Amino acid sequence: MNKQLNGLPIVILVRPQMGENIGAVARAMSNFGLKELRIAEPRDGWPNPKALEMAAGAESIIQNAVVYENFQAAMADVQLAFATTARPRNTDKRVMEPAAAMAEIRAHCDAGLNVALVFGPERSGLANDDITLCDTLVSIPTAPENSSLNIAQSAVLIGYEWFRASGDAPQLSREAPDPAPMEDWHGLFVQMEGYLDAVDYFRVEARKPVMWTNLQHMLLRARWNPQQVRTFRGMLRSVWERGANKG
User: Fold this and answer.
1) Which of 40-49, 82-91, 95-104, 114-123 has the lowest mean pLDDT?
2) How many CB atoms lie within 10 A of CB 73?
3) pLDDT tens, 140-170?
4) Exposure pattern of 166-195 as b/e (b: 16+ CB <10 Å)?
5) Are 165 and 115 a contacting pair, CB within 8 Å?
6) Average pLDDT rounded to a whole number, residues 30-52
7) What is the tens place of the pLDDT at every residue in 167-217?
8) Is 234 exposed, middle or buried (0-12, 13-18, 19+ CB in 10 A)?
9) I want to staple 34 with a disulfide (CB 3.0 to 4.6 A). Which of 29, 100, 114, 199 is the partner?
10) Within 13 Å, how many C-alpha atoms sit on residue 23's CB side?
11) Domain ranges of the chain
12) How far is CA 214 from CA 14, 91, 133, 169, in A?
């Protein structure tokens, strides 16, 4: 697993729409000491000269940014992800305000975990499928009349709270193994969905998206380590094979 840069959270932009906003996010990152930028499915392709124009003082962040074909690929080595959203969806995900979230993230980073700060596209924000892959929602309090923030504005506010987070953040216990990265969870979910589809678990196709999302949420909340994920996959495989042999 690739450990993130200098114990800092990774910034992931999901389907950003404007190069200018990508550049402004990079500038905010530079202002507050963040360095690693990942971009999933940029609408206008990459590289984008408009991003570089807006990244005053943060040109190296733009030049070193890595583009991914989708959000899932950008999350492969991430162990914990905090998604920024103005309006928490109908979900049982934990919701935190920026200051508390950044203090916790600093503790996780100090403990050596790969943590991501996730920002959605300008027009619509993160989709429910994106949020499913994240552990915690970070909601910036705003006036109800206009709760939507541009991703560059969100990056400034989140970056500021990250910078303010005390270096005296509580140390996490190192007794437990590190959480599994998302690529491990993806393997489990592909295997599990295949088994459930094969036995017609979801029954009504229209209900599957909600049921499947809830199952993923339930499992992700456990924050299993890699060995626990492998053990669960082995159990599923054994149950499946025994059932197939009986059939």
Assistant:
1) 82-91
2) 16
3) 888 888 877 889 999 999 999 999 886 544 5
4) eeebeeeeeeeebbbbbebbeebbeebbee
5) no
6) 95
7) 544 555 556 678 999 999 999 999 999 999 999 999 999 999 999 999 999
8) exposed
9) 29
10) 16
11) 5-164, 182-246
12) 22, 9, 12, 32
Q: Which pair of tokens denotes residue 44?
A: 């206008």
The two beta strands, 80-84 and 94-96, are unpaired
Token duo for residue 68: 């991914």
Q: What is the pLDDT of residue 57?
A: 93
Which amino acid is located at 86 in the chain?
A: A
Spatial separation of the C-alpha atoms in residues 125 and 198, rounded to whole Å:
34
User: Which residue has tokens 């303010």?
Assistant: 164
What are 124's two structure tokens?
């619509």
The distance from CA 110 to its chain's CA centroid, rounded to whole angstroms, is: 18
Angle at 154 between CA 135 and CA 134, to 5 degrees: 10
CATH number for the region 5-164 comes to 3.40.1280.10
